[in-house]
């Protein structure tokens, strides 16, 4: 059984069907990619999988447990962590504080009211480690809102990592990045590959085809193909509907 | 000795000592300064109210426009306890805190999934409900005329008993309550709980996706803040020796928001204290000079909102311009999108 | 049983008036996501402007005023009911102009700005027109009483309900039949979308605020002949406006109308049978509805709401 | 209460010490400058606590004019006990909480010898509680709640207006014989309304009338249509309304629109002059009470009106009304009492006031008046009036129907309800 499975997901907004009969499965210790053109329903799909929206129909299983319709915090607590395409940080907090908040040990003590968080050196060390891992060592005390765009992208992933996830979902991590920065980010994701089960949404084909173990293609709210990058390159349908347009 | 210092240092900051020092000496200099002891009592009480309110407004980003309700509930609860049950200072205060906490907790159940102006709208509606009940239920509250002849019970510590009949005595009692509130709140805003509240203010969605039950945090912040408002209310009913529905009106609830904001509650822990002091002083100064003082104060307020929305504390921080206060300058880039 | 019919009819007419009070508030909160706490002050201002037009202060206006006083009341009233809301709309636009500094900052600042404006306007009224009770003259033709089924009704009340219905229809027309209305209905608080549609956002806000303020002023003119006119009369308007908006659902035109009518019915019927509950009834109604439907009767999920 | 006595003394002493020790005392821009000289030259400072904003702002202004005119008259004659009388005013905002604060400020900060002024009973209560704590004499000039001289009476408080029960006593018996026995009550749903209606009910039943229904009017009611329909359906002969403040103004307007004022007899408790002045006469309906009217045919009245007009040439209100009158009379009697006592010592002045008797001539009323020592309410003539339909004079709004002797309209319940502090329990001082 795969680590994460979605069966027959349907989602409508008003009269508009956004997702139709989506079936996905992500294996552990792999990097799975989801691609599709803008407006294909990728982000909506992520939002359904992580609890932001309830699906109208269908089932989401994580490690065998049915997590359909759970609230985002419930899903997060089970070990699914995500980043956002539109940057979603705690802008007034320092980079370090952004990570501290996301640490599971801090989360467990969320209702501790009389203990000082800034005096907790163990948590700070752990947060520093994560910060170093996403290439932001030395930026501990800079405000998240003051970081450069590329750094914010990294921090966005860092916050998701700090939650020590069993499954890491990255929503268009290269969105808005130039070629150099995209390459650096690819390096970062590659370095995470060995330690985490990762799912990445992208429309940057090259980025994903280089990194992913398996890829699913979503178009018009449906999964139109899935398989290894090699297999998909050969898929005529995919070539016609996507690659031609993007490349 | 060092160990003791370390412990004290962890609970008390330098600003705190300075602040309390100014207030401790207040009864000595307030009269030569041209003011009167009772004003000091009210200022301290409203500071307690303001600090508690800022936990909600400044730290959690939840604008409550109906907080006067909890202040009033505290005042009535204290008064009723003294008059109907028996005269006891600390039990009365605890009763008031409990009553306002429970009221706050119930209201919070209706509010905690909301934010921004929807939150404000609901707090106004609930504030009005409580205000109306206070006026309507005259058998209990004395209605429009208020609950009168509330005693100031003596403070009984071990075998000694300290009367709080004089305004100076009540001032020191209220000040010790304020000191406790400040120390506790200072700790609280630096605790994981406080940090999460601030995270929720900055980005509620992300807080949810890193696994926090945002609803529960908002609920707790609201209830706590209501309890502190009730604490202040109980002291207020002692100061006035009566409890009136007016403090629960929309107008009065707006005033506490106004004070907290003018002082700079969004950018500084001390904002509410500054705002309360400025409001009461301005009111006393302008109030004896002109009958239309509210017009001038209103204009002043509008100008502050327009040109210095970070309030007095914000202006000060900008003036001092130290690195640690940099967050002020960029705080307001955060917009309504 | 037949005893209750007059009370239901009365409740309906009352409901139209409540809806009128809430209308301007609804527009501003729906489009700008701004709770206009100055709504009540603008309401009062409308009535004072109308009073100024109908019976100008002769000390200030001299011969012109005396000439104008000789003009038939119905003409003066007609002019007042057209011009005074426009004057309030201008004041509202001025307020919006000041508000611009708060856009893009925390939503609370807009709220506080209107709170300050409410204080200033009310005090200014007190300064200009004095603190005492005044009255707004209405023409003979629409005042007095009518006899119906053995009961006396206020003729003015019926006309007031007609005015309210007229204003409701006009706002409906604005929302349904004008391009601005389409934007507003589409959820104009999403400023990016509005810009994408090529709409000048700042002009839209100016218009909406002006319209909302004008409606508040109009409501003031219609209601003060019933309520009486004093500087703090606005507080009597702003609180029902809130309750109705929360009850009906934020940003919903029909929600505001339905909310107003429900409140009117509740107040009217309890007023007759359990009068001490007549004011509380609107609060109870609110709690009942909000407990069942958190977003109010017809409220839609808003972009800013969690 | 004993400790409070000490507190105030010691507090005053402390201030003195600080000054004596040569510390620089910063007076602040708001410091009220008074000349501290020999006690005999020191002005007598009176704190005016009338409302300048809120529901009773207008009445408050009228009240204050009355006090100021009385004080000016004393000062013209060389003051009181050779000392000039000075005043300081703080707006009590028609808000009890503000009333408390204002009283604390005036007593402890400004060291006022006396406090005067109230329209709202809530504010009067708040002030009198503080005043009692310090022993400062407080005159409630214009709040007509029966509780003021009943449940909430205080040793230091003196009430100068007729109260709801007085007015009811004056009106009910007459109304039953002239209009009929089928009565209906409209009661403002708060303390004053309930007390007043209870008094009316008792009197109606005593004189053989019947209350067919009572409509409770919540405070803040602006639309009376449903209640007025209800009244029509019940068709009483007399409606006795105990509705006050802004509610009353709204009701008045709506009753007059319907012409209901002519359909049945209306008894209104009291109409304060500032509340009706400048409004069309149609807005006045039914029978109502007042303590004084500017066209009473009594010696001194015309001259009093002239003094008013000379003192306040610019006011919108061209003639004085009952609120002004009460403010004026209260202040005048207080200052006279100080003169008679020969001292500002509060206990002496209280005793003087408790024995106060004023001749009809001096009060410009039809009967002699006196202060009831048990309740501290002025027992005075009460007039019933109605709208003066068809008058040409815009200022001549009332037509006086009758006057009642203070003894006939005594609020008998007050003596039992009033539990006053003893003089011994009241701190004493002299300013």
Strand content of chain B: under 5%
Q: For the record, what CATH class of chain B applies?
A: Mainly Alpha
What oligomeric assembly is this protein in? heterotetramer
Radius of gyration computed on alpha carbons of chain B: 20 Å
**From the helix content, strand content and strand pairing of chain D, which structural class follows?**
alpha/beta
Q: How many domains is the backbone of chain D divided into?
A: 2
* CATH architecture type of the largest domain in chain D: 3-Layer(aba) Sandwich
- Classified by CATH, the class of the largest domain in chain D is Alpha Beta
Report low-confidence residues of chain B grouped into runs of 5 or more. 323-337
The total of helices of chain B stands at: 17
Q: Strand order within the widest sheet of chain B?
A: 1-2
How many domains would you count in the coordinates of chain B? 1
Give an account of the 3D structure.
- Chain A is built from 10 helices and 10 strands.
- By secondary structure, chain A is of the alpha/beta class.
- In chain B, strand 1 and strand 2 form a beta hairpin.
- In chain B, 66% of the residues are buried.
- Chain D is of the alpha/beta class and 431 residues long.
- Chain D folds into 2 domains: 235 residues, Rossmann fold (3-Layer(aba) Sandwich); 160 residues, Rossmann fold.
- Helix content of chain D is 42%, strand content 17%.
- The longest helix of chain D is centred in the first third of the chain and has 20 residues.
- The two termini of chain D are 20 Å apart.
- The N terminus of chain D is likely disordered.
- Chains B and C meet through helix 7, helix 13 and helix 15 of B and helix 5, helix 10 and helix 12 of C.
Please give a handful of descriptors for the protein shown.
heterotetramer; A: 247 residues; alpha/beta; 6-stranded mixed beta sheet; 10 helices; globular; D: 431 residues; Rossmann fold; 7-stranded mixed beta sheet; 5-stranded parallel beta sheet; 15 strands
Break the fold down into its secondary structure elements and pairings.
The complex is a heterotetramer of chains A (247), B (337), C (306) and D (431).
Chain A: E1 4-13, E2 16-26, E3 31-35, H1 42-49, E4 57-62, E5 65-66, H2 72-77, E6 80-82, H3 95-102, H4 104-108, H5 121-133, H6 149-162, E7 167-171, H7 179-193, E8 197-202, H8 205-211, E9 214-219, E10 222-227, H9 229-234, H10 236-246
Parallel strand pairs in A: 3-8, 3-9, 6-7, 7-8
Antiparallel strand pairs in A: 1-2, 1-4, 4-5, 9-10
Helix pairs in contact in A: 3-5, 3-6, 5-6
Chain C: H1 4-32, H2 39-54, H3 58-70, H4 73-99, H5 107-129, E1 145-148, E2 151-154, H6 155-177, H7 179-185, H8 191-196, H9 201-227, H10 235-248, H11 253-273, H12 280-292
Antiparallel strand pairs in C: 1-2
Helix pairs in contact in C: 1-6, 1-9, 1-10, 1-11, 2-4, 2-5, 2-9, 2-10, 4-9, 6-7, 6-9, 10-11, 10-12, 11-12
Chain D: H1 2-20, E1 44-48, H2 57-76, E2 85-89, H3 96-109, E3 114-116, H4 121-134, E4 137-140, E5 157-159, H5 164-179, E6 182-188, H6 191-206, E7 210-217, H7 225-234, E8 238-242, H8 245-258, H9 260-263, E9 265-270, H10 273-276, E10 287-290, H11 301-311, H12 322-341, H13 346-354, E11 357-358, H14 360-363, E12 369-372, E13 377-379, E14 382-387, E15 398-404, H15 412-417
Parallel strand pairs in D: 1-2, 1-3, 3-4, 4-5, 6-7, 6-8, 8-9, 9-10
Antiparallel strand pairs in D: 10-14, 11-12, 12-13, 14-15
Helix pairs in contact in D: 2-12, 3-4, 5-6, 12-13
């Amino acid at each position: 059984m795969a680590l994460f499975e979605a069966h027959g997901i349907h989602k409508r907004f008003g009269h508009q069907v956004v997702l139709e009969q989506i079936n996905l499965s992500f294996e552990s210790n792999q990097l799975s990619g989801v691609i599709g053109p803008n407006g294909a329903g990728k982000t909506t799909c992520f939002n359904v999988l992580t609890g932001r929206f309830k699906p109208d129909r269908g089932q989401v299983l994580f490690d065998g447990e049915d997590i359909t319709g759970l609230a985002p915090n419930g899903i997060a607590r089970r070990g699914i962590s995500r980043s956002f395409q539109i940057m979603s940080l705690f802008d007034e907090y320092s980079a370090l504080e952004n990570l501290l908040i996301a640490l599971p040990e801090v989360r467990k003590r969320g209702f501790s009211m009389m203990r000082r968080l800034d005096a907790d050196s163990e948590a700070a060390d752990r947060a520093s480690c994560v910060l170093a891992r996403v290439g932001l060592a030395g930026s501990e005390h800079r405000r998240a809102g003051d970081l450069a765009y590329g750094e914010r992208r990294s921090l966005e992933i860092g916050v998701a990592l700090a939650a020590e996830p069993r499954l890491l979902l990255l929503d268009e991590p290269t969105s808005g990045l130039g070629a150099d920065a995209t390459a650096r980010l690819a390096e970062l994701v590659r370095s995470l590959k060995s330690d985490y089960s990762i799912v990445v949404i992208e429309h940057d084909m090259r980025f994903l085809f280089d990194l992913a173990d398996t890829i699913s293609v979503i178009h018009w709210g449906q999964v139109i193909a899935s398989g290894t990058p090699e297999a998909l390159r050969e898929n005529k349908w995919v070539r016609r509907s996507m690659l031609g347009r993007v490349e | 000795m060092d160990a003791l210092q370390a412990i004290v240092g962890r609970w008390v900051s330098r600003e705190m000592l300075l602040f309390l020092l100014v207030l401790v000496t207040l009864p000595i200099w307030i009269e030569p300064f041209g003011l009167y002891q009772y004003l000091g009592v009210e200022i301290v009480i409203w500071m307690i109210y303001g600090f508690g309110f800022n936990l909600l407004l400044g730290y959690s980003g939840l604008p409550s426009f109906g907080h006067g309700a909890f202040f009033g509930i505290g005042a009535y609860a204290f008064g009723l306890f003294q008059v109907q049950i028996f005269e006891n200072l600390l039990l009365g205060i605890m009763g008031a805190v409990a009553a306002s906490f429970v009221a706050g907790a119930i209201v919070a159940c209706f509010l905690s999934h909301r934010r921004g102006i929807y939150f404000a709208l609901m707090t106004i509606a609930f504030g009005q409900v409580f205000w109306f009940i206070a006026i309507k239920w005259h058998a209990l509250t004395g209605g429009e005329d208020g609950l009168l002849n509330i005693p100031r019970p003596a403070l009984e510590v071990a075998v000694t008993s300290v009367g709080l009949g004089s305004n100076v005595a009540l001032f020191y009692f209220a000040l010790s309550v304020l000191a406790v509130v400040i120390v506790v709140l200072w700790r609280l805003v630096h605790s994981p709980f406080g940090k999460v509240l601030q995270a929720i203010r900055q980005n509620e969605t992300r807080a949810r996706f890193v696994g926090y039950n945002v609803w529960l945090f908002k609920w707790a912040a609201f209830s706590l803040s209501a309890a502190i408002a009730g604490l202040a209310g109980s002291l207020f009913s002692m100061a006035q020796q009566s409890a009136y529905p007016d403090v629960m009106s929309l107008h009065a609830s707006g005033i506490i928001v106004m004070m907290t904001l003018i002082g700079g509650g969004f950018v500084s822990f001390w904002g509410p204290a500054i705002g309360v002091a400025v409001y009461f002083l301005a009111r006393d100064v302008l109030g004896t000079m002109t009958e239309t003082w509210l017009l001038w104060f209103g204009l002043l307020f509008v100008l502050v909102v327009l040109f210095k929305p970070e309030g007095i504390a914000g202006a000060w921080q900008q003036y001092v311009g130290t690195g640690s206060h940099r967050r002020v300058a960029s705080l307001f880039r955060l917009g309504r999108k | 049983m037949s005893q209750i019919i007059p009370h239901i009819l009365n409740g309906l007419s009352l409901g139209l008036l409540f809806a009128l009070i809430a209308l301007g508030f609804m527009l501003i909160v729906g489009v700008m996501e701004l709770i206009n706490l100055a709504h009540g002050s603008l309401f009062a201002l409308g009535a004072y402007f109308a009073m100024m037009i109908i019976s100008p202060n002769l000390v200030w206006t001299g011969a012109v005023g005396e000439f104008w006083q000789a003009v038939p009341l119905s003409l003066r009233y007609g002019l007042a009911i057209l011009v005074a809301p426009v004057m309030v709309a201008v004041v509202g636009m001025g307020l919006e102009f000041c508000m611009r500094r708060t856009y893009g900052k925390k939503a609370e600042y807009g709220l506080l700005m209107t709170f300050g404006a409410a204080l200033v306007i009310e005090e200014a009224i007190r300064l200009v027109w004095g603190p005492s009770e005044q009255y707004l003259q209405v023409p003979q033709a629409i005042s007095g009483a009518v006899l119906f089924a053995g009961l006396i009704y206020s003729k003015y009340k019926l006309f007031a309900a007609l005015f309210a219905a007229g204003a409701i229809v006009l706002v409906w027309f604005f929302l349904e039949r004008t391009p601005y209305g389409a934007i507003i209905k589409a959820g104009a608080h999403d400023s990016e979308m509005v810009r994408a549609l090529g709409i000048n956002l700042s002009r839209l806000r100016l218009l909406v605020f002006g319209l909302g303020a004008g409606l508040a002023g109009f409501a003031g003119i219609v209601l003060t002949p019933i309520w009486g006119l004093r500087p703090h009369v606005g507080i009597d308007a702003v609180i029902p406006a809130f309750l109705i908006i929360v009850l009906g659902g934020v940003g919903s035109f029909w929600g505001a109308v339905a909310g107003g009518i429900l409140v009117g019915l509740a107040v009217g019927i309890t007023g007759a049978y359990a009068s001490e509950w007549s004011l509380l009834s609107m609060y109870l109604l609110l709690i009942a509805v909000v407990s069942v439907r958190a977003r109010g009767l017809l409220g839609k999920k808003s972009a800013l709401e969690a | 209460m004993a400790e409070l006595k000490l507190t105030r003394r010691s507090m005053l002493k402390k201030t003195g010490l600080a000054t004596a020790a040569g510390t620089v005392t910063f007076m602040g821009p708001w410091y009220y400058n008074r000349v501290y000289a020999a006690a005999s030259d020191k002005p007598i400072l009176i704190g005016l606590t009338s409302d300048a904003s809120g529901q009773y702002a207008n009445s408050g202004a009228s009240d204050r004019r009355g006090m100021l005119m009385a004080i000016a008259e004393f000062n013209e004659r060389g003051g009181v006990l050779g000392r000039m009388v000075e005043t300081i005013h703080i707006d009590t905002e028609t808000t009890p909480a503000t009333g408390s604060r204002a009283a604390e400020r005036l007593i402890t900060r400004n060291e006022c010898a006396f406090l005067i002024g109230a329209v709202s009973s809530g504010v009067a209560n708040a002030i009198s509680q503080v005043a009692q704590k310090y022993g400062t004499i407080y005159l409630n000039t214009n709040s007509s709640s029966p509780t003021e001289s009943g449940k909430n009476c205080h040793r230091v408080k003196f009430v100068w207006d007729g109260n709801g029960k007085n007015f009811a006593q004056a009106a009910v018996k007459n109304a039953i014989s002239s209009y009929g026995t089928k009565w209906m009550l409209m009661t403002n749903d708060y303390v004053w309304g309930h007390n007043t209606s209870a008094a009316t009910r008792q009197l109606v039943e005593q004189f053989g009338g019947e209350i067919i229904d009572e409509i409770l009017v919540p405070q803040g009611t602006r639309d009376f249509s449903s209640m007025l329909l209800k009244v029509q359906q019940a068709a009483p002969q007399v409606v006795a309304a105990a509705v006050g403040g802004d509610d009353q103004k709204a009701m008045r307007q709506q009753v007059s629109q319907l012409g209901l004022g002519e359909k049945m007899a209306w008894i209104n408790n009291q109409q304060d002059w500032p509340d009706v002045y400048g409004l069309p006469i149609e807005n006045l309906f039914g029978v109502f009470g007042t303590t004084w009217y500017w066209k009473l045919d009594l010696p001194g009245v015309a001259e009093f009106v002239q003094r008013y007009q000379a003192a306040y040439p610019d006011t919108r209100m061209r003639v004085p009304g009952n609120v002004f009158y009460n403010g004026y009379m209260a202040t005048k009697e207080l200052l006279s009492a100080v003169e008679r006592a020969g001292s500002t010592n509060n206990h002496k002045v209280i005793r003087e006031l408790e024995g106060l008797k004023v001749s009809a001539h001096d009060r410009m009323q039809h009967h002699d008046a006196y202060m009831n020592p048990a309740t501290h309410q002025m027992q005075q003539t009460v007039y019933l009036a109605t709208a003066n339909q068809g008058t040409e004079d815009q200022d001549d709004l009332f037509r006086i129907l009758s006057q009642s002797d203070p003894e006939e309209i005594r609020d008998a319940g007050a003596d039992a309800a009033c539990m006053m502090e003893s003089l011994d329990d009241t701190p004493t001082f002299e300013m």
